[in-house]
Amino acid sequence: MSKSKKAYRTYILATAKPTEQLDGLNRLGGRIYSKTVSLAFKTHEQKGFWLSDGGLKAYLKFKQYPCQAHSVQAVIDDYCGARRSFFKNRKTNPNAKPPNKTPKFHTFTWRATGISYKRGKLRLSMGLDRDPLWIKIDKKFHKVVPAEVSLVYNRTTQQYEFHATYDTTPKKTKAKVGSAVAVDMGEIHPIVSFDGINADIYNGREIRSVVRYQNKFKSSINKALSRCVRYSRRWKKLKRVKNKNLQKLAAQLRDMRHKITSRFVSTCRERKIETIVIGDIKHIRQSINYGKKANQKLHQWAFSKIQNMITYKAKAVGISIDIEDEAYTSQTCPSCGHRKKPSRRTYRCGECEWQGHRDVVGASNILTKYQGFLFNPVVGAVVSPVGIRYNPNLCRLDKWSPFSGLKSSKPSKRR
């Protein structure tokens, strides 16, 4: 996975006179920043160490701030950036002091997940069930969604300015059609791939059944353990049973994921794929609330394990890996571009009446974004995907092995 440095450029999209709403947002930014500073100092004084950036975000995510979760993280990142400068500076300056001010006001920021365009205006989300902030902007800014938008107070003009930061990194040369495959990962179907010609769906219901059994077993064994005296003979026996069964189930799940990912990578190698493009879903668990059962499934979804398996197996056979933002890919029609949230497994466009599997639609749109096309040039191929169901005998399509090329050392015979 290549990590190239990105270039950004900031523009002032609009200005506005101070209002109660804008002052409240600036005050909210100061409240979050001040809480971050006090939490970091309190931990350092009591425990003797500085909370990491992720630790600060983990503690503050339980605070009910009236804004989107990514906006809270943006303010925390401002403090973390200032603190990193302190850590670097104190190596040469022993008198350096960490950032300790708790301001009443602070710049409020929206990340790309909370920014969208509608009816010629920029829509800045304030979170679920809250009214968004609308800004009228120039037409030249309508084409690209900014990486972030900040509300900055200009003391000279005594006005608020909306600073939009855009990614200006030159687009790298994309792989030609047929030599790149896009992957849309899901909780039901761990891998759904599309290369512009072939669409494959890897069924993960067997994995879901093992996870479901794992949850039931944990519930029943923990209930039995709760009735026992801790460290008693029966408690120790149940504890051994629990550990043994959980290790067995974890091994089964690991074996299933290995077989599915190995089959996928070997298929890519057989089709002479040069690049695997994976949809970026690292923030998918932020602010989800689909009910108790659905939330449990999403939080137990091991998508990062599958992504890591695909990554190292692909690199071992000479296939490169790239990441592409998958925002709204499963909601956008690959034929006409109309956006609609599907309610079932089949996506049906209300404008052009095109229909297809919604996970394949997501993979198709990821490939479209990666290749830089306006719409997918081979939409018809999405209609008939090929399904691959897990079974214990599922294996690679080639004879490649991570141990290929290694000489086996046979023990010498004793005379």
Protein described:
The protein is α+β, with helices and mostly antiparallel strands and 415 residues long. The chain has 2 domains: 8-167, no CATH class; 180-206 and 253-389. The chain contains 8 helices and 15 strands. It has helices at residues 20-47, 53-60, 69-89, 205-226, 233-270, 292-299, 303-316, 358-371; strands at 8-16, 108-111, 115-118, 121-124, 133-136, 148-154, 159-167, 180-184, 191-194, 199-203, 275-280, 320-325, 346-348, 355-357, 386-389. It has a 6-stranded mixed β-sheet. The protein has a 4-stranded antiparallel β-sheet with strand order 1-7-6-2. A 3-stranded antiparallel β-sheet has the order 3-4-5, with no helix packed on it. Strand 8 (180-184) and strand 9 (191-194) form a beta hairpin. Helix 1 (20-47) packs across helix 3, helix 2 packs antiparallel against helix 3 (69-89) and helix 4 runs antiparallel to helix 5. The radius of gyration is 26 Å and the shape is globular. Residues 377-383 have low confidence and may be disordered.
